[in-house]
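Write out C-alpha cells for F-box domain-containing protein.
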Amino acid sequence: MPPTLYPTSPALPNEIWLLVFSNLAQRDRLAAARCSKHFLALIRPLVWKRLDFTASWKVVKALCTTIRRNAHIASLVEHWALTIDMQDPNLPDALTVMPLLALTLQRLTNLRVLVFTFNSGWFPIASKVLDNCTLPHLESLSTTVQPSIASFIARHPNLKSLGRCISTREDIWPMLGPGVLLENLHVVIQPLLQLLEHHAANNPSVRRLSKGCRIHLVTTDWYVYARELCALLNAADVHIGELCLESSIYGLVTIPSDVKTARIEVISFLTFNFEPDNERCCRFIEAVLAMCPCLRTLKFPGYSCQNDFDLDLILAILNRFSRTCTTLRTLITARGPTWVNGRTLITSRGPTWERQGDEWVQTHTAPTRRPDQV
C-alpha cells in the first residue's frame, strides 16, 4: 500500500513541494523521503518514474524483485535505462539475468522510454528478452536495431524515437512495419538512404519521418554520400529539423558545388573539432553551408571560446559564413568561460550568436557561476 498523501503540509502546498522535489538529484530526493511519510508519498512517484543509472547485479535484482511484487510501483515507471555494471564480480551469466529482466519489463505497463543496451557478447541473448514483451505506451526505444528485434518494434507502432543505432546494411524498414511519424532517429547512412527511398516511393508499409525530425547520422564519412542524400531528401520532400553529424576529418574532403538541398534547418557537428583559425576547417564548413542554402542554425557542441582573441575569430568567421549561406542566423557553441579584459567573470552555458541585420551579436551566455561561487 502506498504511503498516505495529505492535501497539503503545514508549510507549503503539495504543488510547491513537487516543484522543489522534481529539481533535486535522486540521492537528495531519497534523503528528503526519509524525513516524513508525507514527503515519502510525494517523492515516491518521482523516484520510480525514471530509472536511469548503472548498478550492481545485487541492486538490479532487488529493484526487479520489488517491481514484480508491487503493481503500484510497476505502474509508476515511465523511463527504464537501468544498466547492469558489467564489471561487477558477482554478475551471474546471461541466462540468469535475462529471464529476470524479461519478467520485469512485462510488468511496466506505463513505460514510455526504454534504453536497452548490452555489450556485443550479451546482445544475442538480450534481444530474446523483447520477444514476448509488449509495452502499450512505449514511445522511445534506444538499442542496437537489428533484424533480431524487428518484431518487437513492429508490435509498437507508437514509437516516435529510435535511438542508439540502426547499423544493419539490410533494408530493415519493411520488417519494422508502419507506425506514427518518427521524430528522432539514430542511424548510419545506408539505412537512412533506404528509408528516404521508401519515402520517395510513398511506400505505405514503412514508417515515415515527421516534419522537423532530428536525425543523428553516425557515419563519419557521410560526405561521400552527400549527392545521394540531397537528391533523396529533395525527391522525398522530407524536412529535417536538425541533422547531427559526426566527422573529425576535413581538408581532404570535398562536397561538389552542385549538391544542394533546402530540406535541412539546423546542423550540429557533434564530434567535429572546430578550429576557426584553421583555413581547411573553415572551407569544409563553407562547403556544408553551400550544400544547405536554407540552413538557419549551426551548432558546435564541442567548441567554446577561451579568450577575446577567440571571440574576434568567431565574429570574422561568422561574417564569412553568412556570405556563403545568407539564411544563417544563429551559431551555438559549447559551455565555456566568458572573458572580459583577460579576467574570467562567469562560466557560460552554450554561448549563442545571432545575426541582427548585417552584424553578429552574442545574445546568450546563461551565467552559471562567478569566481566567488566556486
